[in-house]
Design goal:
- The complex is a heterodimer of chains A (352) and B (266).
- Helix content of chain A is 24%, strand content 37%.
- With 352 residues, chain A is an alpha+beta fold.
- Chain A folds into 2 domains: 3-229, Rossmann fold; 237-350, OB fold (Dihydrolipoamide Acetyltransferase, E2P) (Beta Barrel), CATH 2.40.50.
- In chain A, a hairpin with a 4-residue loop joins strand 17 (306-313) and strand 18.
- Chain A is elongated and about 75 Å long.
- Chain B has 266 residues and is mainly α.
- Helix content of chain B is 76%, strand content 0%.
- Chain B has 11 helices and no strands.
- The longest helix of chain B is centred in the N-terminal third of the chain and has 35 residues, at 58-92.
- The radius of gyration of chain B is 22 Å and the shape is globular.
- Classes of the chains: A alpha+beta (352), B mainly alpha (266).
- Chain A: The complex is composed of two ATP-binding proteins (PotA), two transmembrane proteins (PotB and PotC) and a solute-binding protein (PotD).
C-alpha cells in the first residue's frame, strides 16, 4: 500500500480535555477510509486536524511524506465536504465550484470550463447559474462535492456529508460517492457515526471511541473479528457473553460457556480467566438436541425478512438470535426451552 | 393565548399610536400651512419650504445642514469601520481575556444618560485643551455612534456560520481573501444597517452636540432649537418635516437591505 496520509501519534487537547490520545493510522492512496464512532469519539476532531481547522497538540500528520500539521488550511492540498455543505450563499453554483480554482490563480475561462465539467460529473449542469438556496438538499450536497473535488485535492475529507439527507437519497448518494471515489482515484477520508454507511462504502474503517482508535480493518474484519467489546457492541448487533478461558495452546483457547458447555475459540495472546465472547445473532441456530447453549424463548419479534428471538440463559443473561422468515422451520413459541448451536467460529473471544 | 383577546388591548394600542404620531402628523400638515399662524389653517402652500431655502434664516440653516450632513457622513463611516472590526473580533475572536468587559465597554454609551456623556465629554475636551468646534462634535459623534453601528453588525455576524470562512480557507483562500470574498459580503446587510442607524443617530443628536459645539458652530438640531427659542415659526415645521422624511427614507432603506440579506442567508 502506498501511504497517502500518515497520522502519527496525534494528540489534541482543549484545555484540560483531551479529544485525541495519540492517534495513529496510515491511509493508502485511492483508499475509501472511514472514521467511525459515536459522537464525541474524536473522529471529527481528527478530520479537522487533517484539514487544518484545528492545531494539533502533538504528533505529525504526513501527506506523502511531508508533515503538514503546522500548515495553514489554504496550504494543504486537501479539500473538505462539510456536514451542512457551507456553500457560499451569495455565489452561483458555478462560482462556488470555481472558487478553489480562482484562489489557486486559474484564469476565468479555464476555471469556468473546469467547473462546468465538475457539474456535469455530478449531473447538475443545468443549475450552474442558480444560487445554492434554490437547490434541494441532495443537489446542494452534490455541489459541495463538485466544489471540493474541482481543485483536484490529494485527499478529500467528508464530514458526515449524508446526515442531512433523507433515507432514500442517502442510500443513492452512498453508491454515487463510492463511484466518484473510484473514478477520481482520490483518497477519501469519510467521517460518520452510521455504521451501515461505513460498512457499505469503505475499503477500511477505523473505529474510534473516546479519543482512541479501537480497531482498523476492512468491514469484514471489524464485523467478524472485533478485537474488543466496544467494537463488537458498536458494529452491528451482538451478544456479549461472559465466559471462562480454561487454557490457551497454540492460539486456540478452550472456553467454558455459561451453562457449562465447552467450545474452542481463536485466541491471540490471552491469559486464562474470565473473558467475553461476542456472538452475532445470525450465527446461532436452533437444534433439537446437543446445543452449545440452552435458553428459554421470551419473545418473537417480526422484522419482515427476519424474525428476532429474544431468549434468556439460565444464568439470567439475555441472548438474541435472528432467523430468516421462511416457511421452513418451526418458530418456537414463547416459554419453550430450546437448544442453540454456534456456527463454526461464531464465538469471537475478545481482548477485554 | 391571542394577545388581542385581552380587555382594553385595542384601546391601549390606539392610545399609544395617537400619542406617538399625532404630533408628527400635526407638524407635517401645518408645514404646508399658508398662514403665518401655527394654530389656524390658512390653506395649502409651499411658502415655508421656500422660506427655509431663501428666507432670512436660510444662510444659517444651510450652514447648519451642511455641518450636520458632513459630520453624519464622517462619523457614521468611521464608527461603522470601528464597529465592524470590533464585531469580527468579538464574534470570531474566540474566547479571550476581558471579552465580556469589552462587550460592556462597547455598549455602555447606550445605557449611560446622554446628559452625563455630554458633560463628561465637554470636561474631557477642555482638560486636554481641545477648542470646541467642528472637530469636537465629530469626535463625540464618532464615539456615540459606535454602539449603534455595532449592534446590527454583530447580530448579523452571529448568524453567519464559521464554516463559510473555513470552507474558503479550505479552498485555498488566505485569511484576507476569506474575509473580503466571503465574510464581508455575507455581513454586508448588517454593515449597511449599522451605517444607516449611526447616520440617523448622528444627524439627530442634540444634547451632546449642544455641549461640545462651541460658539458659532451649529448643526441642524441646534439651529432649530436656537430658532425655536425666539418663537415657533412654520418654517421650523418645514425643516422638521424634511428631517422626518430623511429619517423615514433611511429606515425604509435599512429595512429593505435587511430583507434582501435574508435571501442570501443559507
Amino acid at each position: 500500500m502506498n501511504v497517502s496520509v500518515d497520522i502519527r501519534q496525534v494528540v489534541k487537547r482543549y484545555g484540560t480535555v483531551t479529544a485525541l490520545h495519540g492517534v495513529s493510522m496510515a491511509i493508502g492512496e485511492n483508499e475509501f477510509f472511514t472514521l467511525l464512532g459515536p459522537s464525541g469519539c474524536g473522529k471529527t476532531t481528527l478530520l479537522r486536524c487533517i484539514a487544518g481547522f484545528e492545531d494539533v497538540s502533538g504528533g505529525e500528520i504526513r501527506l506523502h511524506g511531508q508533515n503538514i500539521a503546522a500548515l495553514e488550511p489554504n496550504h494543504r492540498p486537501v479539500n473538505t465536504v462539510f456536514q451542512q455543505y457551507a456553500l457560499f450563499p451569495h455565489m452561483t453554483v458555478r462560482d462556488n465550484v470555481a472558487f478553489g480554482l480562482k484562489m489557486k490563480g486559474m484564469g476565468l475561462a479555464e476555471r469556468n470550463a473546469r467547473a462546468g465539467k465538475m457539474l456535469e460529473m455530478v449531473h447538475l449542469s443545468a443549475f450552474a447559474d442558480r444560487l445554492p438556496a434554490q437547490l434541494s438538499g441532495g443537489q446542494q450536497q452534490r455541489v459541495a462535492l463538485a466544489r471540493a473535488l474541482a481543485p483536484e485535492p490529494k485527499v478529500l475529507l467528508l464530514d458526515e456529508p449524508l446526515s442531512a439527507l433523507d433515507l432514500k437519497l442517502r442510500q443513492a448518494m452512498r453508491v454515487e460517492l463510492k463511484q466518484l471515489q473510484e473514478t477520481t482515484g482520490i483518497t477519501f477520508i469519510f467521517v460518520t457515526h452510521d455504521q451501515e454507511e461505513a460498512l457499505t462504502m469503505s475499503d477500511r474503517i477505523a473505529v474510534m471511541s473516546q479519543g482512541h482508535v479501537q480497531q482498523i480493518g476492512t468491514a469484514r474484519d471489524i464485523y467478524e473479528a472485533p478485537v474488543n467489546r466496544f467494537v463488537a457492541d458498536f458494529i452491528g448487533e451482538t451478544n456479549l457473553l461472559p465466559v471462562t478461558v480454561e487454557s490457551v495452546a497454540q492460539g486456540v483457547a478452550a472456553v467454558t460457556l455459561p451453562g457449562g458447555h465447552r467450545i474452542t475459540c481463536a485466541a491471540a495472546g490471552m491469559a486464562p480467566g474470565p473473558h467475553h465472547v461476542s456472538i452475532r445473532p445470525e450465527r446461532l441456530s436452533i437444534v433439537p438436541t446437543g446445543g452449545d447453549l440452552d435458553v428459554v424463548v421470551e419473545r418473537v419479534v417480526y422484522l419482515g425478512s427476519d424474525l428476532q428471538l429474544l431468549t434468556r440463559l439460565d444464568s439470567g443473561a439475555a441472548l438474541h438470535l435472528r432467523m430468516q422468515n421462511s416457511a421452513r422451520g418451526q418458530v418456537p413459541a414463547p416459554g419453550t426451552r430450546i437448544g442453540l448451536q454456534l456456527e463454526e467460529g461464531a464465538a469471537r473471544l475478545l481482548a477485554d | 393565548m391571542d394577545l388581542r383577546r385581552y380587555p382594553g388591548f385595542r384601546a391601549m394600542t390606539l392610545l399609544c399610536l395617537v400619542i406617538l404620531y399625532t404630533p408628527l402628523i400635526v407638524i407635517t400638515v401645518y408645514s404646508f400651512n399658508a398662514s403665518t399662524s401655527i394654530t389656524t389653517w390658512g390653506g395649502f402652500s409651499w411658502r415655508w419650504y421656500a422660506d427655509v431655502f431663501t428666507g432670512p434664516e436660510a444662510p444659517r440653516f444651510r450652514a447648519a445642514a451642511w455641518n450636520s450632513l458632513t459630520i453624519a457622513l464622517i462619523a457614521a463611516t468611521t464608527a461603522t469601520l470601528i464597529a465592524t472590526a470590533a464585531a469580527v473580533a468579538m464574534v470570531r475572536g474566540g474566547r479571550f481575556r476581558g471579552k465580556s468587559a469589552t462587550f460592556t465597554l462597547i455598549n455602555l454609551p447606550l445605557m449611560v444618560p446622554e446628559i452625563v456623556i455630554a458633560v463628561a465629554t465637554l470636561i474631557f475636551f477642555s482638560m486636554i485643551g481641545l477648542t470646541t468646534g467642528y472637530l469636537t462634535i465629530l469626535i463625540a459623534h464618532i464615539t456615540f455612534c459606535i454602539p449603534f453601528a455595532y449592534l446590527p453588525i454583530a447580530a448579523r455576524l452571529q448568524g453567519i456560520e464559521a464554516t463559510y470562512e473555513q470552507a474558503a480557507r479550505d479552498l485555498y483562500a488566505t485569511r484576507a481573501q476569506a474575509f473580503r470574498l466571503i465574510l464581508l459580503p455575507l455581513m454586508m446587510p448588517g454593515v449597511i444597517s449599522g451605517y444607516l442607524l449611526a447616520f440617523i443617530i448622528s444627524l439627530d443628536d442634540f444634547i451632546i452636540t449642544n455641549f461640545v459645539k462651541g460658539a458659532g458652530m451649529e448643526t441642524l438640531p441646534t439651529a432649530i432649537f436656537g430658532s425655536v427659542k425666539q418663537g415657533i415659526k412654520p418654517n421650523i415645521m418645514a425643516i422638521s418635516t424634511m428631517m422626518l422624511a430623511v429619517s423615514v427614507l433611511l429606515v425604509t432603506l435599512s429595512y429593505f437591505v435587511n430583507r434582501a440579506g435574508q435571501k442570501t442567508r443559507a
